[in-house]
């Protein structure tokens, strides 16, 4: 197992999905903290998901490239842990492997002080890389998450506004239905009143016409 995978094994689970994709740059959707992700949008930390083979390859490639580009002249911590990885299958005991690796590199000029000093150098290199990663992560989050959060808020406001409109329209419909029923009753009552008035008028009118006709006949015969 490589130095990178042993280091990662202290914090996260590995998941082998059998994929054989080529490694690419680190995926900004992964958490900058290997222990837990921030759970943006919920405010609640949650455990990091197991890393699959493809993700492991991407991050291992990233750190290999980072260390290769910053490798100091001569044997140092980088060569030390590379040699440690190489000897692991031949010298399983870690203490013995440390001694054998240091002995082989000390011939090339590596000292304990230089080993510790350069280990600090690579540690600072990783910390600097983490700051750059965090900055890129924040920018990505601002684009991919904040924009969606704003869209969610807009939709929630729209739903609330439409809910109020629906309630208003529902009340207007209910009031209109009540008014329709009242108007229909008024129409029936008014039609009944008008018909009654028309009927009474017709009776009175006919009675007056008949009375006058009767008087005309009487005048003709009696006078």
Supply database-style keywords.
223 residues; mainly alpha; two-stranded parallel ribbon; two-stranded antiparallel ribbon; 5 helices
Q: What is the topological layout?
A:
Blueprint: H1 3-8, E1 14-15, E2 36-37, E3 46-47, E4 51-52, H2 53-69, H3 77-87, H4 94-106, H5 112-222
Parallel strand pairs: 1-4
Antiparallel strand pairs: 2-3
Structure write-up:
With 223 residues, the protein is mainly alpha-helical. It has a domain at 3-150. Helices cover 71% and strands 4% of the residues. It contains five helices and four strands. A two-stranded parallel sheet has the order 1-4. The chain has a two-stranded antiparallel ribbon with strand order 2-3. A hairpin with an 8-residue loop joins strand 2 (36-37) and strand 3 (46-47). Helix 3 packs across helix 4. The relative contact order is 0.07. The model is unreliable at 16-47 (pLDDT under 50).
């Amino acid at each position: 197992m490589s130095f990178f995978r042993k280091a990662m094994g202290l914090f996260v689970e590995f998941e082998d999905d059998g994929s054989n994709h080529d490694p690419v740059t680190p995926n900004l959707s992964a958490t900058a903290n290997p222990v837990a992700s921030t759970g943006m949008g919920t405010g609640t930390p949650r455990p990091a998901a197991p890393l699959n083979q493809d993700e492991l390859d991407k991050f291992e490639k990233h750190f290999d490239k980072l260390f290769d580009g910053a490798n100091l002249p001569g044997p140092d911590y980088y060569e030390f842990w590379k040699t440690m990885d190489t000897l692991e299958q031949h010298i399983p005991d870690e203490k013995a492997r440390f001694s054998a690796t240091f002995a082989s590199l000390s011939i090339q000029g590596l000292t304990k002080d230089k080993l510790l000093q350069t280990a600090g150098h690579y540690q600072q290199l990783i910390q600097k890389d983490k700051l750059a990663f965090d900055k890129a992560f924040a920018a990505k989050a601002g684009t991919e998450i904040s924009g969606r959060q704003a869209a969610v808020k807009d939709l929630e406001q729209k739903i609330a506004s439409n809910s109020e409109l629906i309630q208003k329209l529902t009340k207007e419909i209910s009031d209109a239905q009540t008014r329709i029923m009242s108007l229909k009753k008024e129409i029936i009552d008014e039609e009944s009143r008008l018909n009654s008035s028309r009927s009474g008028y017709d009776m009175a009118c006919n009675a007056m016409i008949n009375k006058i006709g009767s008087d005309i006949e009487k005048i003709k015969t009696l006078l």
